[in-house]
Amino acid sequence: MRQRATAVLSVAALTMAAVCGLAACGGASGDAGSAGGEVRAVDGPVDMGALNDVCAGNVALTSAPPYTGPAPHPVALFSQHQGNDPTGSTFPVRLLQDVGQPERDAFLARPAQTQLVACAERDAREPTDVICRFDIGSQKQVPFFRTSYRITVRAAHTGQVVATVPVNPAAAGCPTSVKVAWSGAEVFSAPTDRQIVTALTPFVSWGGTGTPPAPAGPEDAPAAGGAPVVEGSVQMTTGPGVDPASPAVRAHLTFWDAFARAQEGDRAALGTLLDQVDGSFFGTLTTILDQNRAIPGRSVRGPLRLLVTGVSPGPEGGAVTVDSCLDETGRETLEQSLPTGQIGIASRIRVNLARDSTGEYRATGFADAPPAPCPPPAGRIS
User: pLDDT exceeding 90 applies to what percent of the chain?
Assistant: First the structure.
């Protein structure tokens, strides 16, 4: 029986992920930041309920495999709901959907294989002008808060904290369905799947020898030099040793300007984009644009910030690679001109460029940039 303190809100189409959220998958509740005294060793089957207990900070699962040996190191993820429901599990299971094939062994492993437990909780919040709208429920319009999260990563076998990783700001917007308090209902942003995968990859991919990785801090990031170069919605700065006037960097900026304007619905930008990329890459980009426009009335607006950290020779003669810290946290998604609360994320990205028959650089594809710290994203919640 539901306690009267809780209201269930939903739009008409429920996804499987939302159904799991309403069921509050997972068992125990607890504060991920509290140690609760001595760690209690628990012997028995390693299932999702037992792994959830590790979030309380005082449980070690002696039957779980230790956090040692070669990668990958499977992780179980639990995260607070997006609504301020005062009942049920504090840390229900978070099921990731946007997981690439190389990441599946770490993020979608069976519970008995789990070495790490990651527990994500809200850390700070700020009000926004976004209103979440629902078709079903006692409250059709609920205020939305932008939040940061803290992910506490523990070794399942020992219960010890491996690391605490910030996700700031959390980029996911209004959910499809949510449980909220009857009085004073609130909805919060949440980390996207890609934000979670990025935050946890250093720990699930650790080689198993030496000291486990530590999250890179802002002090490790390269400092931007000079005034930003602005084209359209794109603001570009460059790191040490990068010449903002070099042909490759200028072509890189022109590409991002055309791609950003195409995302914003500027049809004329598609012609510019076609001039800046090769044919196969143009096909990839139009697929991305079509996916972003899959919902009628959806659009994107806001600044895109680039910090170019390096330019290096590509695999073929005349080709170059441009590595950047890409900050899209200032870009928000709208539906029917109304903000949804969804924003872009901060990431590292590599763009490959090659000279065409006229000697001009054209973008030929995206690639994963080498791991390196980036500055905190704009709009950071302190």
Answer: 68
